[in-house]
Amino acid sequence: MGLNHCAQGRVGSTAAALASSTRCPVAVVRGHDPLHAQRQWVVAEVDESAAGDGVLRRALDEAQLRDAPLRVLMAWRSRYTDIHDATAVADGNRLAHAHLDRRLAQWKKRYPDLDVQAVAVHGSTLNYLSKNADSIQLLVVGHERTQGVAALLGPPGYAALHGANCSVLICEPHNLW
Q1: Would you kindly state where each structural domain of the chain is located, as residue ranges?
Q2: Which residue has the higher pLDDT, 33 or 136?
Q3: Predicted local confidence at residue 9, as pLDDT
Q4: CB-based contact 152:139 (threshold 8 Å)
Q5: What CATH number belongs to 28-176?
């Protein structure tokens, strides 16, 4: 994107292409304030796919390494986009949260000293990130994420994380596990 855009914290198309095409983990590191990071979470974006286990494993290791709480996020969308019923959204959040809790039970036993919490969100991960940007030090996502890696590294992700020092770790492709 050029030097002027990089100075503002944006990531260029070369970095986005590298992150989406590489066969190894890629970290996009933004500013770092060690004192502020001590109060921040590691957030893992998972879905129901098998690739989510690799993301979760890497996020657990990162949270333990950083002595940071882990928030495991599952974003879901309504089947019918014209329905905006608050009860349906609450039920969807409850079901997604229950699914995450069952999935996290085995990991909580392996990491008993780690603060791990499930977070179910109706909508998109970017909405959650924009609301909680000041509380997040690292976002761990899968290489095969449904919305694509470019959404996190391009203008939508930049807008969601504007002003935050949140780094993004993109895990290696699932088929390498």
Answers
A1: 28-176
A2: 136
A3: 46
A4: yes
A5: 3.40.50.12370
Q: How far apart are CA 111 and CA 152, in angstroms?
A: 28
**How far is it, in rounded angstroms, from Cα 95 to Cα 26?**
32
Report field, pTM of the whole predicted structure over 0.85: no
Instruction: Specify whether the CB–CB gap between 162 and 136 falls below 8 A.
Output: no
Indicate the burial class of 99 (C-beta count within 10 angstroms; 0-12, 13-18, 19 or more): middle
Give the position of tokens 């930049």.
158
Mean pLDDT computed over 68-73: 96
Angle at 74 between CA 71 and CA 76, to 5 degrees: 150
DSSP single-letter state for residue 134: G
Q: Cα–Cα distance between 113 and 129 in angstroms, integer?
A: 25
CB atoms within 10 A of CB 42: 27
The pLDDT value recorded for residue 11 is 53
Cα–Cα distances (Å) from 39 to 13, 42, 45, 66, 154, in that order, read: 31, 10, 20, 11, 27
**Per-residue b or e along 119-135, where b marks 16 or more CB atoms closer than 10 Å to that residue's CB:** bbbbebbbebbbebbee
| Bridge partner list, 156 | none
- Please report the pLDDT score of residue 159 as a whole number: 72
